[in-house]
Structure formats: C-alpha cells, structure tokens
Amino acid sequence: MHRITPGQKVFNVFNMTLLTLLALCMFLPFVNVLAQSLSSSTAVTTGKVTFLPVEFTWINYQYVFSNAPIWRAFGVTVYITVLGTLINLAATASLAYPVSRQEFIGRKYVVLLVLITMVFSAPLIPNFILIKELGMMNSLWALMIPGAISAFNFFVMRSFFMQIPGELIDSARIDGCGELRILWNIVLPLSKPVMASLGIFYAVGHWNTFQSALYYINKPSLWPLQVKLRQMITADDIAIDPSSSQFSDLAHSSPEGIKMAVIIVATIPIIMIYPFLQRHFVKGLLIGSIKS
C-alpha cells in the first residue's frame, strides 16, 4: 500500500485550499447576483444584500418573463446557439476528417493554412468589409458563418479522428462505402466524446455572442440576449411598456434587481447543458489532445 509522505499531505492541503478559494471567487459573485435578483428594490439600493435575499420577492423575474423584447432576444440567442453549433460541428468535422487520413495528399498544406489563422487573425475592418460585401449585414448569418471553424477545435477533432483505426476505414471502403457514408455512419458515431466537448465550446461561444452582434447587427429585433443585457445594464433607466403599470415604479426607481434577474436568466440555460454532457466532456478533451 502506497504511503503518503508528509510533503504530499502538505501539498494536498495547500492544493485543496487554493482550489476551494478559486471556486469561491467564481461562485460567490453568482450567488450575490442571484440574491439581488430575489430581493426588494429597497434592499438592493441600500446595499443590504450579500449572499441571501433580503425581503424576498419574485417581481424582478415577473418583469423579465413578461417583457417581449427580452424574450425576442432570448429566442435569437437560442436560434444562433443551436443552428450555429450544428454548423460549427459539421464544418469542423468536414475539414478535420480528410486531413486526418494519411492518403489525403495535400493534408499538410491544409493543416499549415489552418495553423496560420491561429497565429495571424484578420483585423476588424477587413472582416467588416467582407461581411458587408457578402450581404450578411443585419443578418443572423453574420453571427454563425464567419466563425464556422475554430482552428483550435479543428486540431482537437483532427487528433481524435487520427486515433480511429485505419483498418476500420479500409474495411468500410472494401464494403463499398463512400467517404461521406464512412464519416456519417462510422467516424461520427465513434466521436461522441469529442463532438460533445467541442459542441459545448461552440455553444458557449454563440450564447455569449456580443462583439459580432454590435458590429454587424443594427436592428434591435435581431439583437441577441447579451447585447440586450448590455443595453439594460448601461442604461440608468429601463424602458417600460406604458400598459405595464405594475413594473413602472420598480423600473424607474431601482432597475438593479431587474438587471440581476436578466443576468441570471441569461446564465442558467447554458450552465444546465454541462451536467448532460459531463461524462463526454473530459474524455473528449483528453483523447482528442493525445496523438498515438
């Protein structure tokens, strides 16, 4: 039986203490925001709220769930997250699979070109001109197509595909399968861990879309949730539908609780994805980053 030395015990205690402090630094601000979203406007403005709600109330969430522009922005974000992630995974797999096979003659040059994009990225102005010339201004495609393939995710997926036995691919070709059928029926079913891991990365990126929407979207009806949230946070006052007199005093006197409720609504959905993909997440990253 392996004995733990005193030095290892000290290191384990130090390591656990450090990780616990780091976890608290990331978790406690979220708890504070949640507590403010469930507190009265008076408690929030007077600074009485720390980690527990003061004068518990649901009125901030009632406002959020009854606000049509917020729901529209939420729908836009869900749309670009789902469709954009599917486009990302399809495009990344379509590029990573051929360059992972030894028989593809030009694979080294393709990998080099992708590597260059990791080191040298195009500035904002050329990107803006390109989006404009492609006719994607004020279109949700501008938030999904330009970043269809991430160079880092491409290398992770390529490394995973390279570990699939070549004999399996060759046997499928002997049986008459084309490359697309091999990719769809053999390679992708074996790649669930890496697809789940990269899917999370892509989905989080789309969910947090902010700068691209500011640059390319001028229509408020097409703003994603993060842009709408930024508009509410930077505003000193929150616009209220005149017919919604229930929230008029709250929005004009103390909009902080409403802002915190919107932050929670924008954060919770993407966090809920992790438990369902957790068992694939670590495995996909570890396997995809190792080259045999």
From TrEMBL:
Positions of transmembrane segments: 70-97, 109-129, 141-161, 182-204, 257-277
Pfam families recorded: BPD_transp_1 (PF00528)
PANTHER family in UniProt: ABC TRANSPORTER PERMEASE PROTEIN MG189-RELATED-RELATED, POLYGALACTURONAN_RHAMNOGALACTURONAN TRANSPORT SYSTEM PERMEASE PROTEIN YTCP
InterPro entries, per database record: MetI-like, MetI-like_sf
Listed CDD domains: TM_PBP2
Keywords, comma-separated and alphabetical: Cell membrane, Membrane, Transmembrane, Transmembrane helix, Transport
Family (UniProt): Belongs to the binding-protein-dependent transport system permease family.
Name of this protein: Carbohydrate ABC transporter permease
Record membrane topology: Multi-pass membrane protein
Predominant localisation class: membrane
Source organism superkingdom: Bacteria
Domain ABC transmembrane type-1, first and last residues per copy: 74-277
Compartment list: Cell membrane
